[in-house]
Amino acid sequence: MENNYKMVAKTLFGFEELLERELIQLGAMHVKKGVRNVSFEGDKGFMYKANLALRTAIKILKPIKTFKVLNEQDLYDQIYKMPWNKYLKPTGTLAVSATVHSKAFTHSLYVAQKTKDAIVDKFRETDGQRPNVDLRFPDLKINVHIDRQVCTVSLDSSGESLHKRGYKTATNIAPINEVLAAGLVMLSGWDGQSDFMDPMCGSGTILAEAAMIACNIPPNLMRKEFAYERWEDWDVELFEKIEASLLSKTRDFHHKMYGYDKSPSAVAKAKDNIKNAHLDEFISIQHEDFFKTQKAGENKLHMVFNPPYGERLDINMEEFYKSIGDTLKQGYPGTDAWFITSNLEALKHVGLRPSRKIHLVNAKLEARLVKYVMYEGSKKGKYMNNDKDE
């Protein structure tokens, strides 16, 4: 059994608790929540599993060295001393990214350049040849993080951000990030035990993520590649075993999932993406204007959506948000409706009082995920009244 080592999963602001829960459920050891990240321990197989199965992670980093740095010479010397031939061939390719929170180091690009120089100089000295830089498909992706005087060097096991699941070929003007979509659905408490609807579905991302959650399908099965597949210790048999084990845990879904959009091009794109994700047996996409619809049937309905914010569409926000409230009140009894918005002013025009408000950040914009509970029957149109902000 291979030894466990520390890893760090990066995420979006507000999703740390979700990611912590996901890691514990997957079987990670020593899970510890940070800001926009969660650290944990596991072995190589667990690293493969985390990349395949985590819904709210953007990257999985494997720290290999931590040291103190006071200036750029310190950084160069410490990086130079590391045994890079353990991780990379002299004929290989590399890419370095950096994040800095330090008075001594103010430019992340400069830190990345200095790191790269130290690594290639070391190879030139020891092997007489040096690896080349390949920013798109490197054999080794290195991440340098400097926080004040502490430098952590990590290997990036994911490569491209994990929100790039691989099922999207078509997006609309402002597509919602897959990790954000999965996190919203998870925060809404969706458990796959009712009908699900996205009334403004755009390119279908929220629906795809909700279906994968309902069926316990690992979100990153369709990725073309993870960075660790180019590592010196890549174990394809172990990877296939982990993949098969995850696939054996999928489950059936016995309710309806559907999406509306009033844009014909969005409907076409959503259908394409849902088909690419092999989820078309669960999800139907229809060309409808939500404001002209009513709930189909008596079943409990779980709704999650991402209405336009005003930045990307020329619409009257006050009227638009009032129409959301009116449509929910008049046409959707027996519905838990959740949506995210960064237009906090327009939210006041919904005309309903949210039963939950969760503070998030969407593409650097302050946002709220809000919940409205629409009651059945005689309580139709009433809503909960505790307006909790988190």
TrEMBL record:
Keyword annotations from UniProtKB, A to Z: Methyltransferase, RNA-binding, Transferase
SUPFAM superfamilies the UniProt entry points to: S-adenosyl-L-methionine-dependent methyltransferases
MF (Gene Ontology): methyltransferase activity
Keyword rRNA processing: no
Any one biological process term the GO annotation gives: methylation
CDD domains linked to this entry: THUMP_AdoMetMT
Domain THUMP span(s) in chain numbering: 46-157
InterPro entries per UniProt: RlmKL-like_Mtase, RlmL_1st, SAM-dependent_MTases_sf, THUMP_dom
Short name of one Pfam family: RlmL_1st
Top-rank taxon, per record: Bacteria
PANTHER family: RIBOSOMAL RNA LARGE SUBUNIT METHYLTRANSFERASE K/L, RIBOSOMAL RNA LARGE SUBUNIT METHYLTRANSFERASE K_L
Official protein name in the record: Class I SAM-dependent RNA methyltransferase
